[in-house]
Design brief:
Order of helices and strands: EHEHEHEHEHEEEEHEHHEE
Largest sheet: 5 strands, parallel
Number of helices: 8
Distance between the termini: 46 Å
Shape: globular
Number of strands: 12
Helix content: 25-40%
Radius of gyration: 17 Å
């Protein structure tokens, strides 16, 4: 039973909301539901779920807007976020990952497939408690907090884990497959551009000088 795990599920379709909630609760998850984007944001701050399942097309705020808003929230630990959508795979996946999403699940949703993906997401082991640092960057893995030039930044979970992985091996080049296996795990289905999208989001926040691209190979962390 998963009585200590809270999942926030946001979808404006009452039938899907009922079906998925029933199947998740049957597995022991504590499920909190929202029917629009604004409600999802408010509930995220209130209940601090471990995982959020977001429909892309919702009233008031769509799923991508909700994800972007949550990733900017000053909360102790950022939740995992998975998008549920029937829209074009390429568009939805890139938009969702760019907003800070961790996974992408196609509609129509089969309960067994959904439960398998939820379990895979929640099985991801947290980063070991080791503070990684450079002269201007310091990671606090207890709080998923980045100290950058004296400023506290809460990164989305995958961005944090990606940065932590690269910082563990300064100067060592890791290819995309190595990064995917270490940060996302081999039981999670994500697109081949996932690593590139997350690298871009990190560079937007800390600059280009810390993560160097080695063309045709991968990425490496550069000590400053």
């Amino acid at each position: 039973m998963n009585t200590n795990t809270t999942i926030l599920f946001a979808d404006d379709d009452p039938d899907i909301l009922e079906m998925i909630t029933y199947n998740l609760e049957k597995e022991g998850y504590n499920v909190v539901t929202a029917t629009n984007g604004e409600e999802a944001v408010a509930l995220c701050r209130k209940v601090q779920p471990e995982l959020i399942l977001l429909d892309v097309m919702m009233p008031k705020m769509d799923g991508v807007e909700v994800c972007e808003t949550i990733r900017e929230m000053d909360i102790p630990v950022q939740p995992l976020i998975a998008f549920l959508t029937s829209r074009s795979e390429d568009y939805s996946q890139i938009a969702g990952l760019s907003a800070g999403g961790d996974d992408y699940i196609n509609k129509p949703i089969r309960p067994k497939v959904l439960l398998s993906r939820v379990e895979a997401l929640l099985r991801r082991a947290p980063i070991s408690k080791v503070e990684k640092s450079s002269s201007e960057l310091k990671l606090d893995t207890d709080r998923f907090l980045l100290l950058f030039k004296g400023e506290e930044l809460y990164l989305p979970k995958k961005e944090f884990e990606l940065l932590a992985f690269l910082m563990k091996k300064p100067g060592i080049v890791s290819n995309r497959d190595q990064i995917m296996n270490e940060v996302w795990g081999d039981d999670t289905i994500v697109g081949e551009r996932t690593v590139d999208v997350h690298i871009r989001k990190l560079r937007e926040k800390i600059g280009d000088q810390y993560i160097r691209t080695v063309k045709g190979v991968g990425y490496t962390f550069v000590e400053q």
